[in-house]
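Write out the 3D structure for:
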Amino acid sequence: MKNSILSYALKTRLKKIDFFKNNPHIAQEITFNYLIKNGTNTVFGKEHDFKNINSYSSFSNRIPTRSYEDLFPYIQRLRAGEQNILWNSKIKLFSKSSGTTNAKSKFIPVSSESLINCHFKGGKDMLALYLDNFPTKKFFSGRGFILGGTLNKYKNYTDGDLSAILLSNFPFWVNFHRSPKLSTALIQDWEKKLKLIVEEISKQNITNLSGVPSWILVILKKILKKTGANNILEVWPNLELYMHGGVNFGPYKKQFQNIIPSNDMNYLESYNASEGFFAVQDQANSDEMLLMLDYGIFFEFIKYSDKEKSDKKYYQLFEVEKNQDYILVITTNGGLWRYLIGDIICFTSLSPYRIKISGRTNNQINVFGEELISNNTDKAIKNACLKTNAIVREYTVAPIFISKSSGGHQWLIEFEIIPRDLKLFTYILDEDLKKNNSDYEAKRSNNLIISPPKITILNNGTFYKWLEKNKRLGGQNKIPRLSNDRKIANILLKINC
């Protein structure tokens, strides 16, 4: 009965999803007008003459695109207790995410509107779409494991991982179906937290998981060790769904399939970040994600190929092309105006608008003009593993700078299963990169600029030690895939000794 009621409540949302799927440009126009109205009387709105914005043209002319560094002075004022700076409702929450060039961490304002009408709505829509695709499943028969981060409370505000902010503000019906208990989920000490989480959830009927893949794997392996089980289904026989996002799942999927050996296990991807919830997988047999157009976010796009142009064009949704990489620009109900989030997406469908994440603008290697992005390297790793029966736990790539001979890329890899033939693994990796990136292919020609990849196998646990050393233990912290310098690589090599 309880399952039926909750399922019905979630499915009522499907009609509204159908509306923006069928009327995407109307949905974005409604969002645009809503944002301008709510920003007009803010400090930012007065500085940029919002009251005279009556079209996209006037909007784009009055407001330049901004990075986090550009918005930082406004955010500092919010953290000092001022209000009505970027948005017209009170901002008391800040999502803390990985750092910028100028600071260790970013603090993204979270308004009540972005919390409820974006982040929470995204979570509910994930469930609604899942139940629509798998109507016979009994998702609510057990509990969902959500790995939370930590919170810090100050006089004027609270900051912390987005996961922790969401956990602390979830409606009652979510907490009723969630594990571990809140007091455990928000423990600051990660080693203590992981131990208590394992003790608590290993005894429960867990039907679904949510969190960053690398950290969920840590938990699952600890549970197997504690229980002595051969696979996680011996602990949780009713486990049916893993909801993930934030990183490419490809390099991790084989590890999950080994730990959860079931053809009935489902994997659902979303595209969410501290800045907002943007897209969710809406089809059972495709990893494309539906762009969510009624969450209070207005989208603009820059062609990735135009990123260095001083006069680059900004595209609205109705102007985008299929199979083209775009830099994402967002305006949100949290007060981010024409914000360069740093992500690269590619449209896989224009009716409805579906996307895949290609990478990040600041997570690439472009030392030799090769312009490798994480989408290229993730695909290459996946293909090399598939053809050599290897499993990669984590990896990062750093440049080998040109000295007497050509330069190259050093791949620091922590394997779950090491390939029997490392030379073949390297060859397949290299060939796949050439196939999917013409700039890399050109630079690899005759080894003139870039030599073949150099694979360095790291000891198990090296990346975990790096996260610990850099105080980045936690559910939202991820391993940087690509770097244009050797800072991370050199530290990892030192840890590995």
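Residues 364-496 form a domain with the GMP Synthetase; Chain A, domain 3 fold (CATH 3.30.300.30).
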